[in-house]
Amino acid sequence: CTDDFEDINTPKDAVLQVEAGIMFNPLLQNPLRNYQRNINLYPDLFSQYWANTVSGFESPRYEYVDGWIGNQWNEFYTQTLPEANQLIAWYGEDPLHANAMAQLEIWICSEWARMLQTYGDMPYFGAGLGESVAYNSEQEIYYDLFDRLTTAVNNIDPGATDQYAYKKPDGTNYDLLYSGDLDKWKRFGNSMRLRLAMRLANVDPTKAQTEAAAAVADGVMTSNADVAHIPLWSSGWYDYLHQMAFAWNNIRASKTLTDLLYNQSTLGEDPRARRWFAYKDDSPLVGNAEIEGVVNGYDVLPGNSNDFATINLEGGYVGFVGNGTDVSHYLPYMFYSEVLFLRAEAALRGWVAGDANSLYLEGIQASMDFVGVDPANATDYINGLSALSGSNEAQLRQLITQKYIANFPNGVEAWADFRRTDYPDISLPVDGVSSNSSVAPDTWVKRIRYSDNAHLFDAFFMPSSRNTVESDRMDIRLWWDTADTKTKSGGLMSSNF
Amino acid sequence: QSIRVSGTVTDGNGIPLPGVNVLEKGTNNGTSADFDGGYSISVNGSAVLVFSSIGFVTQEVTVGAQTVINVSLVESVQALDEIVVTALGIKREKKALGYSMQEVSSETVTAAANGNINTALQGKVAGVNITTSGGIGGNARVDLRGTSSLNGNDEILWVIDGVPFSADDTSDPDDLFGGISNGGGLLDINPDDIETVSVLKGGQAAALYGSRGANGVVLITTKSGKKTEGLGISYTGSTVFSEASYFLDLQNEYGQGLNGNYDPTSGAAWGPRFDGVSRPSWTGEQLPYEAASDQLDDFTRTAISMRHALSLSKASEEGNFRVSIAKDKTEGVFENNQIDKLNFDVKAAYDINSWLNVDTKISYIKNKGQQRPEVGNYSYVSFFNRMPANIRTQDLSPGFVIVNGERAEYLYGSSTDLTANPNANNRNPYFIQDQIFNSDTRNRFFGYFASTFKFTDDLKLKLKYGLDTYRYEALDGYRYPDNASDQRPNFNTSEKFYSEENMEFLLSYNKDLSEKINFGLSVGGNKMHRESQLLRSTSGKLASSNDFFLNAGTTLNTNESFSQREIQSVYGYLDVSYNDYLFLTATARNDWSSALPIDNNSYFYPSVGLSALISEMATMPDWISYLKLRGSWAQVGKDTQPYLANPVFSFSTWNFNLLTSGVPQGLVDPNLKPEISTTSEVGLELKLFKSRFGIDITYYNERTKNQIVNTANGQSSGYDLFLTNLGLISNKGLEIIANIVPVKTEDFNMGLTLNFAKNKGVLEEFDKSLDGEDLPYFFFNSNTIPEQVRAEVGRKMGDIYGFAFERDAEGQFVIGADGLPTRSADVVKLGNIQPDFTGSIGIDLNYKNVSLNALLGMQQGGDIYSLTEAGATGSGTAARTTSLGREPFFVPGNLSDGSPNLTIVSPQQYWSRVAGVTESSIYDASFMKLTELALGYSIPRKVLDKLGNGVINRAKFSLVGRNLFYLYRNTPGTVPDSGVYNTSFGAQAFDFSPVPVTRSVGFSLNLNF
Description:
The complex is a heterodimer of chains A (497) and B (1009). With 497 residues, chain A is mainly alpha-helical. Helices cover 43% and strands 6% of the residues of chain A.
């Protein structure tokens, strides 16, 4: 009389297989999960777009907190990756899901890239399939990601209207990124390939050149309409920037960034400054001539830290005000301007056709347009800039500095660019590197260490040089990070060409 | 015709015996002797009086012409034939038991007028440790012989009159950062209905309850109708006042500011020393800079708990009945926090004829809670603990100002706009108190229907149906918007329906095989079916504070969840006794559980026990009245939670109202087996000097293997959990119960009860890494704080891990370049939850009509991490932050290269660092406290006769006190035994701003008519 035990032990609301979009949707929103812990407390502060204003938060002084960024490891490996694997298991062989699977592939490769630039070598081949596996080298993984992105882009057939689509005829739209526009997905895939190619510029220029040229040839983003950013539903709850920078008073604009908004063009103030930033109404700095930020890396914060400039929730910048209807914010993933700067750098290196200087100026213009700057103001500002000039290093510094400004608030990418090129000048923590950090004094943070869980369960598979908590230091440079800011001479590196 | 007979009953030494039953033979007419042994009864002239009392030979006296009959009862050797209720309601002589069980009488439970069975049992049973959380009406962890489970599957089974009673916590905060503890199920029990509480500790005791009894069983037998003189009416009333006590030690010397400078916009207490000089305060008003009154004390109120319990009972030869009703109203120490409880109970039994008896019980319980406070980081207490001492209550209250027609939270903090300031970690408790809303009601029906068929004198069949069901509904929400979350105001509602049915039969055969050999065999079966459904709707942000209902929500969301489990069982029970001094008991049981994989869902387990009454087998010196040796060996199987072994995909809605689905987080071992717990136990019971001294010693060794554990897994495998059989936990321990009667005279009696329990729970085996290294098990591992509670192979479970100071060879701090002590790179072991031993001392003094009962509870060893203090240390409010003065100083110690520390730091920097080093807030959890004190006065019979015309049989007035004071403790103002945030084992490591523990005094009145 135990025949009904199987029924009894199955929840009434259980399902055996779900529609692809239902699982693709949370994957697309993955970067929004735990935004504060995974992104804001690390890349956003390390890139010095923002500065911390909470005494006791020591990540800006390079301390590792497993309960914060350890989540990124956990969520990627136990949710994002298995969800992608599950979708592939269900629909990977189904021709009617070919486009859907290719979109998934582009997205999961992009998320892999975000993980890679955080940690370096990672479990990759066979990961997420039920057992711990070996850690693969960054090189192996980058090479595989190039292949996967290429294949995925090629597999998308925008004309195949008989296929399953994440945006359905009834209006249900699981494709929060491009609302079912497959051409945009192709351009996003190629742009991602270009981003990863340029990441390898110093360490593996041959591969970088090949991939960059192929990506550009196949078609990268062509306008601000192609921007990849994740919408935040106005009725939803997120620990996104408006919480940290406004509601919770956890961060303010970083002085590193706000200084750059005044010293680049002869015009003076960058017209993007006041669309992005403002003073809170109760700040004594309201009415200040300039937008001023906080110095990064205090141990004990000065009492007036929160008087400095912060997110402008009324300034009209689409990323901070949304679309005026159902989207309150957008989390940036890849801007069109970034793609132009990537092309400018590739042109500077002679890897793709085009004029580096004009691509560079187009990049700034694209950013101005996206941020919603009055066209006349944008033109004045751009006219006040000097053209790329001098040595390749000097030109790259100019280029990356403007790229850095334009990429705001995409701290993940800005931190990666700083580590690769060492531009612009990002300061060390003003109160010094924390003695509880694994970064040597007077040294910049270079990566995030593996999570506690990884050290507990994966030590056997880890690179032997960093398979203990002690040796897994956060000042170890990633594969593509070939030089150190400390070697700068006259503000220039000698390592980027 | 009727005549009145009176007299005194004494024992062999001429000492009056209270409570002796006096019955007119063959009738229902009876009474009991009062405190002085005196009795008075009206009987027929031809009557025979029967005097009986446990422990004495029953004596019959023919009344004849006598009007005064004084009786001296003879202590019987059968004194030792105490009858106890054991598993499945089987009554046995205690001497026949091969295992340890401890009984607590109704008087002991209700001594301190405690309406809460959890705390009323605290310290009264050796090996049972009870810690409370969540304040009045909150939950309690009841731990018996340590924890035997890695997955929290260590709950004790509560059985009332043979029917399992759900002790489930309707909600338990699952995170130490906040949450509300709503109504543990045990609070539904009415202590005044309790006749006895038997705690079955060992494996064999519980073997017959199967899976659910594996962690021990508490059997509650409720009162039945009795033959009494008078109306059979009993009333108990009590009123108890409680004060919030035992707050964290805070400093009162320095106020608001940073680095020694006054700053009225600061949230911390690093300002200058109070000097009384007038300064602009945080509200803008000029105020003398000085410590305000005790803010938390101002915030709390005197709690009052009132209780009335009434019962009527009667019995005849054929049957008995009892009806009781009880009403409790408890107001908490926080405004509007209130618990109301109603208990209604009918219990009746009747012999329909010579072969059929029916027996039934129906209870209805309504338990309603309102405005329960949050615990943890977001509790009122937490905000007060971090509040500088110059903040005045009158400025904080009422907590809001009106802005644009809306209430805006008002608080000092980091800027001059006082309404912009409050955020999730910095809030005005007065505002929250006004803002939060919660209420919950549980309506429970509980009862059984049983019939016993007596086929022959030897053969009986009992059929029983038991039901425990409740509907729980709760509302909660935030009335006003605030800066802590953009989802307020909001309104949420939950409903839970729970039911457990038990259908069972028990066929019993008893036979005297010869003069000396008695034989008994019972076989039975049970089908348990449990279901629960939960429905919760949340409004999302409400359109306005005035529309406080679901439909005004902007993101209406509803979730349902289910749980269903069935266990089917057959079991048998054999007992053989020889010459009434040697007893053998054996049991066997097989369970089938729906929660286990189909192929492994059947499991069998046996037990055997032996008891030898040495004092009857051999001649003993006069001074040894009783000597018994016992031993038992038992196995019990355990299943697991429903659905755990069957992960599936499910849906929920997320942003843009789109459906989402994730992958199951856990991987399930295809060969999952039931857990098996094996207990060996030996014991000795000794009574000396005519039972003036009694001692009961038990040693046990319990080994629980094949733990069904969701073990942490390498996340890169895709699953951070793997459900499998792992590990072996041993719990070895010693329990000693001693009863001593040092003084016993006509007017004065003194009794002492000592309980001592030592348990050591060790993780003997667990998972291994790929390198073959033993992996630890995490009882607590959160992503919000670095502290962990671990079990490591070969060690006592419950190691507390956290950051330690780095020290050099001389034990001095290693100082960093910033001049501050450095902390360990990784978390290290700093302490352990498990105490070395726990104990209690019960003292009962009786002098004539006056009685005094005191209960001292204690714990030796064990550690606790005071997050409460760590938080207040970071804010500069903790008392210790003034211990080094407030001038900049050089932290003693050397840099890591051995060079001297030349960097001066401020106390603010120093203590901010200390706050982040776990080691600095770890405390020894040893304590001893006066748990209960009751002073009673029984009004003499003569007075009662005059007062109430003989209607009142008994009247007792008592003054009671609970938690009056700690004789010693090491924690900084807080208490080590009541600070936890929930009932899990791992939570026992944390003291984190609980609802303040109270100190209570009150009075109670017992009347019998």
